[in-house]
Amino acid sequence: MKRIGLITSGGDAPGMNAVIRAVTRSAVVENIEVYGFLRGYAGILDKDYKKFNYSDVGGIMERGGTILRTARVPEFKVPEVRKKAADNLKDLGIDALVIIGGEGSLTGGKLLSDEQGIPVVGVPGSIDNDIAYTDMSIGVDTCLNTVIDVLQKLKDTASSHERAFIVEVMGRTSGYIALMTGLAIGAEAVIIPEIPTDYDSLAEKMWEERKRGKINSIVVVAEGSASAYTVARHLENRIGFETRITILGHIQRGGSPSAFDRILASRMGNESVKSLIEGEFNVMIGLSRNDLIRTPIEKVLAEKKSLDLEIVKLANILS
Ligand code: ADP
Asked: How far is the CA of 26 from the centre of ligand 1 (A)?
């Protein structure tokens, strides 16, 4: 292993820079060169890269986003385009590729490896925590902290005005962010794609709590289940008190990574290089019971990570 490529791809997540730093430094101390390609698979197709030395990745751990930038490159689904990417990597003398990204990025990597024989290793970066074979993906913890911070602030104003706030958070197919942040701030309810919503009983619960003296209500909605506007319409008809809507949007992707994400990113970045040095290719690095594990990307992609329904019950009991 003499030279490796590195990309961040798909949706950005806080902590990606900490992975870039860990991969680069772990490789450089083993005399492996690192080429960081810009904008995910687009940089490989355009041969747009930067050579990273040890000092080039100083001072980036604490920065949100990704210095390599990221992009969605739909044409990568076309086999001839992947062949071009593989040819470019071979031209540049790249022996293997580290891919930091979500399921889509890992799918691209798996195909690059299956069809073109490029050795790859994946590092899970996704704020949705929807990637199997890892307890946590990079960026999840920071995102949860950001959302909790905002929800807590909304709770203050909700109490002052005795209002109900309907807050829409990210999660196209997974209610993870809504559920965990709802649990962490004691939301009245979380509305998630995994579970159908019974608006009558939710409205009744909100009324009961008002009668018991609760002066604020926060309902957290995952974007993939319903829009906050739809939820507000359903509830206002039933509860008869004012609601306010907040859509958090891209604020959820930004910010300096938390301690947890910095540590996870540092460990996973280092492990990805170890895996390449040891010749264990086409695996994704994951976290399981605080140990790092390597799982074939194929196996990771074949499994859908499901929500822990016990936590749904817990959120209901405690709110
Ligand atoms: P994420 O990696 O965060 O899940 P996307 O699903 O947008 O984000 O995927 C990121 C990129 O990975 C895409 O823009 C594309 O370049 C590549 N990719 C995604 N799905 C595939 C696929 N089925 N085949 C080949 N490449 C893919």
From this structure: 26
